[in-house]
Amino acid sequence: MSDQEDVERQRRRRVSLANAFDRRAWQRGEKPKVPARILAGGVALVVVAAAVFGAGALISYQQGKKDKDPKQKAALKQQADPAAKPPPSPSPSRTSASPSTRVKPEGGAAAPRSRAPKAKAAKGRPKSRFPTGPKFSTTTGVLLRNVMTGLCADVPGFGKGKEDGPVEQFSCDGSTKDNQRWDLVVNQPGAGPGGADLFSIRNAKDGYCMDVYAYGPPKARTNVSEYYCRPGSGDNQMWYLERKASGRFWIRNRKGGLCLDVAGGTGAGGSGAQLTTYGCSVNDDHLWSFA
User: Fold this and answer.
1) Domain for residue 276, yes or no?
2) Is 48 inside any structural domain?
3) Angle at which helices 36-80 and 3-25 pack, to 10 degrees?
């Protein structure tokens, strides 16, 4: 059978189906208002539309099934494995820091500000600018006034003293034009008798220290002079305070314990009198104060 005959055969079958539909759709004695071919075409369109709709629904169903399957598998896997956890949510970037929350006390009052603790003064150290006892901090620009004579430790002239130059007493002058200001430099804290601080007596203008001849313990009536500062036990330039009354002290040499003294009889030394070392006595001119 040729292809042309096959096509013709199929066409006749469609016409026969259309005529049969036409005869069943209308009652006897009535004529169809629509030609049979038009009805046949409509039936064909309905069949084609149904086929297209069914194919679309099938594709949509299959796509939905594909989307749904991974979620169902993940849910089933999580139920089967309770230890499995979902992936953590991404942490916020460093630039978007969360604001800190402040907790207020009950009653709505503002939280009290805590005060910083006050710095405590060193134990045994006075608050005064001048020494008040045998333990003190380095003090600069101090006048050493003899209580009995009322005169101050001085260097001859108004300028700088000389190496091995004398230290004497003179009318007190605390101005910078004179050379009567001294620095009490604590070199060995607590190393003196009874835990007293050991210090050098350094002239503020020339930088020399009060010194006693040689290196060992000085003898009575040994003159006090100025020399390059050598703090420590190698020389005899270290002194310590012994408090005798409020603001009044013996200034004692570490080697031998003699007191800073004014030459001459008890209080007899006048302006220009040499400072010496001598055995400490409350009846002599050995008391000193600071100004």
Assistant:
1) yes
2) yes
3) 100
